[in-house]
Amino acid sequence: MAQLTALGTDAAAPTTRPASKPVLMWAAIGVVWTIVSIVTLYGWVTGDDFGAPEVRGPDQMDAGKLIGLRIVEVISTGVLAIAVYFLAWKPWRRDKKVTLDALLLLGGITGFVMDCWLNTQSFLFAFNSHSVNLGAWSSSLPFHNDAVPSHYAESLLWGLPMYIYFCAALGFVNTMAARRIRARWPGLSTQSILAILFVGDLVFDFVVENVIIRTTEAYSFVQTSGPLTLWDGEQHQFPLYETFLVACVAMCFTYARWSADWDADGLSVIERGVLTIPSSYRLAVRTFAAIGFCAVVLMMCYHLPFNWISLTGDSFADLPSYLAPAGLTLP
Questions:
Q1: Does 5 reside within a domain?
Q2: What is the C-alpha to C-alpha distance for residues 80 and 41, in angstroms, rounded to an integer?
Q3: Range of the domain at 122
Q4: What is the pLDDT of residues 241-260, one digit of tens each?
Q5: CA distance 63 to 172
Q6: What confidence category does residue 20 fall into, taking pLDDT thresholds of 50, 70 and 90?
Q7: What pLDDT is stored for residue 151 in this prediction?
Q8: What is the largest CA-CA distance in the chain?
Q9: Rounded to an integer, what distance in angstroms lies between the CA atom of residue 133 and that of residue 52?
């Protein structure tokens, strides 16, 4: 009987655990993006754009908004620290395991290198030069148009954390919410629960971003599609597709993390296939897979569509001098 049971288990294995290894596809993309990131950062640090640009006049920033900007930087850095502690450090200290949450945090950090792609073909996104920064690396990214200004402020203390709390952190929170919704209304489909969370993410992003923009002048959407923009032509203009795209990114992270709940081995859609890989290589493969997943989601769900819509836009923000880089000419 034992032999028959063992034989039956082996025979059933191919149907319960497919031979495909999506983790290797994600990992291959992660390796490519890691190389691009390293080359980009090296080019930035050794190039002319490294270092904070001067705060340009003649416009003077309101003292209250400058204090607000510092508060946002402190809060954002604190959120990043809290996320690292609860999603990475605490689980590792407890179980001595590197969780998917920890890997997605790392993926978000490497994904931050992609942020300057917003200004490679046209200057679409302006940072307040009062922000703590060391300049920007857009000129070191592939496909940069040399006619586009590249010496501007890229915020480090609130820009980087956004790639955490709108991605891995929001995916974690959404997964907790999804489990509660399913426990309360077990008849709801996965798609229905994700739709509910999507609406919540839309509201969350719209409120958070507009509060930051209005109270701190931390950044401005320079060129947008007028019909899809609120307060078009003003400094605080806000493209509605920004909120939609951010919510799409959050949904991808939510689905990836939640997918581990219905896998027999507790593996997410990013990690499936890793158990067929020798154990000594699994962490490296999982790490690059998470980086690759983050790179694909951020590029396909945010950066490419945002650039595509905005580059054809006809609404230009009225920027104060401390938000506009030298050499920027707007219609």
A1: no
A2: 21
A3: 21-51+61-316
A4: 999 999 999 999 999 999 99
A5: 36
A6: low
A7: 95
A8: 86
A9: 6
Q: Which residues contact residue 65 at a Cβ distance below 8 angstroms, ignoring those fewer than 6 apart? A: 215, 216, 217
- Residue 47: both structure tokens together: 């190039």
The answer as to whether 235 is a domain residue is: yes
pLDDT at 326: 83
Element (H, E) at 126: strand 125-127
Amino acid identity of residue 111, one-letter, is G
Take residue 167 and report the two structure tokens written for it: 């991605």
3 is written with which tokens?
Answer: 């032999």
Name residue 239's beta-bridge partners: 229
| Partners of 212 in beta bridges | none
Residue type at position 47: G
pLDDT (average), residues 87-112: 96
State how far the Cα of 298 lies from the Cα of 303, in Å rounded to an integer.
Answer: 6
Residue 5 has pLDDT above 90, yes or no: no
What distance in Å separates the CA atoms of residue 312 and residue 224, rounded to the nearest whole number?
8
Burial environment of residue 47 by CB neighbours within 10 A (0 to 12, 13 to 18, 19 or more) = middle
In this prediction, residue 12 has a pLDDT band, given cuts at 50, 70 and 90, of very low
User: Is 16 part of any domain?
Assistant: no
pLDDT tens per residue across span 262-298: 999 999 999 999 999 999 999 999 999 999 999 999 9
Q: Is residue 11 situated within a structural domain? A: no
Q: How many domains does the chain have?
A: 1
User: What would the two tokens of residue 273 be?
Assistant: 């296939």
Spell out a b/e string for 156-169, using b for 16 or more CB atoms within 10 Å of the CB, else e: bbbbbbbbbbbbbb
For 310, counting Cβ atoms within 10 Å of its Cβ (0-12 exposed, 13-18 middle, 19+ buried), the class is: buried
pTM for the model: 0.91
Question: Is 331 a residue whose pLDDT tops 90?
Answer: no
Give the amino acid at 137. W
What tokens does 221 get? 């959407």
Structure confidence by residue, pLDDT tens digits, 112-149: 999 999 999 999 999 999 999 999 999 999 999 999 99
Please list, in sequence order, all residues whose beta carbon lies within 8 angstroms of the beta carbon of residue 285, skipping any fewer than 6 positions away.
23, 24, 27, 274, 277
